[in-house]
Amino acid sequence: MSSFTGHADHLDRSQEAPQGLPRTPYSRVKEQRKSSCRGHYQPRLPPNHLKAGSVSQYINGKTLEGSTGETLNVIDPSNGETVATMTLAGSDDVQQAVQAARDAFPAWSAATPAERSAVLTKFAALMEERAEEFAQLESRQAGKPIRLTREFDVPGTIDTIAFFAGAARNLEGKATGEYSADHTSSIRREAIGVIGSISPWNYPLQMAAWKILPAIAAGNTIVLKPAEITPLSSLLFAEVATEAGVPDGVINVLTGRGSTVGAELLRHPDVDMLSFTGSTVVGRTVLEAAATTAKRVHLELGGKAPFVVFEDADLEAAIHGAVAGSLINTGQDCTAATRAIVHRSLYEDFVEGVAGLYAKVKLGPTQDPTTDLGPLVSEVHRDKVAEMVERARGYARVIGGGIPNKEQDGNLANGSYYRPTLVADATPDSEIFRDEVFGPVLAVTPFDTDDEAIILANDTPYGLAASAWTKDVYRALRATREIRAGAVWVNDHIPIISEMPHGGFKQSGFGKDMSTYSFDEYTVVKHVMFDLTADKAKDWHRIIFTLDS
Prior knowledge:
This protein is an alpha/beta fold.
């Protein structure tokens, strides 16, 4: 598998990923773009001003320090080193950013779809030129293996921009119609206004794109608050957007805490909508707070994805799918496979197969292209995962797992690594089977009948994603119909494409990211009615009053 789109052609080809690794959803995009990108770009390290700590906010096209004076270190979780020191935003910064977005809204929303599309097309091209820079930055701030950022995060982000560059020209209302004898009606679809967005730490760059692109393609302006522990790629993303021609004030980025910046965006009367991706617990708080100003809210929350292996499944394919689907982004993915529900006839072979592949997964430095699994985002989060697995030892069969130590694993012990863990014989009512772990942990339980499998798959408060593994088309159709989740894969798990919507059922939130369906979140529908009679006294007026002739 070659490195991303030719931007890293200077690398020693002996360090490429082994050919047997899973093909990413963006491989097609990568291959299509090779010819246009190869050979002309020299990768850059993160800009000096992002390292120095003087730039923590991006407001109205300018890089600024946060007003609070409080600083926060951005830590590389693979080694504990400080990547940058940021000054955090406060209430004054929120006011300034919201005002900049409000001032920019009239002109940007009045721009034609073609004009917005042209700017976003240039944005995608500039992102391609700086792809390696973003891959390096994302790897360092989030602890992602460089192969993942090159092959997945960065090309996925570029594809999102390219998609919405085209989709901007496909934003339309309904044609006119005469639904009343004396009138013609039409539907206008218009931008909402200023969008407040709160994005998570697990996919800092991609989630920034998911939040920003549909909003601005539809004519809105935005104030984004990335997770304070991984803000660097979002800040650089906004700078590149400005370089591409996105007007000042259309995209603003604030680095700050949820308790200050996030809460202020929720309360602010000039923020017309709040989009949030994060935990279900925090999502409930967001929903309650938004009610005070009657804001529209879009929530993409937690998940506990079932991975259902029916008795006729291709077992080898299911095993490979379970490993890739559970270890994507070190398991820090709301759609990751976390609950394997396996037919009893295949159960032990499945457990043995997954455990065997888990043992071969390579933990290593994130800058090593041969590393398979990076660290968790922080030591605090790593310890939470470890404690949850430790509790599972009291009621289930735990295979693998554990924190690397200095004697056996050398420098890995300096990072927040955790080994892939299989928890077999987990009961459906156990903590490990019901609650989000957000780590490289897969819980497994057996089933006997298809009815039981569907019940187990749906026995969760979440409904973000699921997969069904079977060779029987009728069984697959039943599973996709009856499993309550926003996305259901058949004989695969994880691929997400820009053309299709992403969003959950139940306590996984509501609203859609990606695809043209996301425009429903970021636009309002207006009914326009034209009188066809030109009569001064309309026929229906007599219902209200009568005049002597």
